[in-house]
Task: structure prediction
Amino acid sequence: MSTLDQNCAYCVHGEPLAKFGIYICDLTQTRLYLFKEQSHPGRVIVANKDHVRDITDLSDEERNAFFADVAHVSRAIQKAFNPDRINYGAYNDKGIHLHFHLVPKYDGEFEFGGVFEMNPGRVTLSDAEYAEMIAKIKAAL
Result:
């Protein structure tokens, strides 16, 4: 059964989503979004297709499919951007829709060895640069 919340950016897309992300594609259990703030090149969000509040709201099969999608995207980010590490963030304080931030980290750059900032607001790209980045991720999927 598909559930959506009309107050959730991951459910309604449009303007609420456009404030922070760009839709890339659907995967088995999730939807993939490019995070607009690109201080960490290749940063994406993997969000559950249905509006669920927590990982414990998924069946074992759904949870396994969710993490299989996260691993699949992580491999694509490794292939497309060759980061030194990838941080995984699952913060559910305000955005109550199960999602993970995959944040590529590069040795020698800011925040390496520490926790990433949620939205450092340092790097945004042109539409063409976002499109190029999305194409690179899709090619690696």
Notes: The two ends are 27 Å apart (CA to CA). The mean pLDDT is 93. Residues 39 and 122 are 6 Å apart (CA to CA). Residues 9-140 form a domain with the HIT family, subunit A fold (CATH 3.30.428.10).
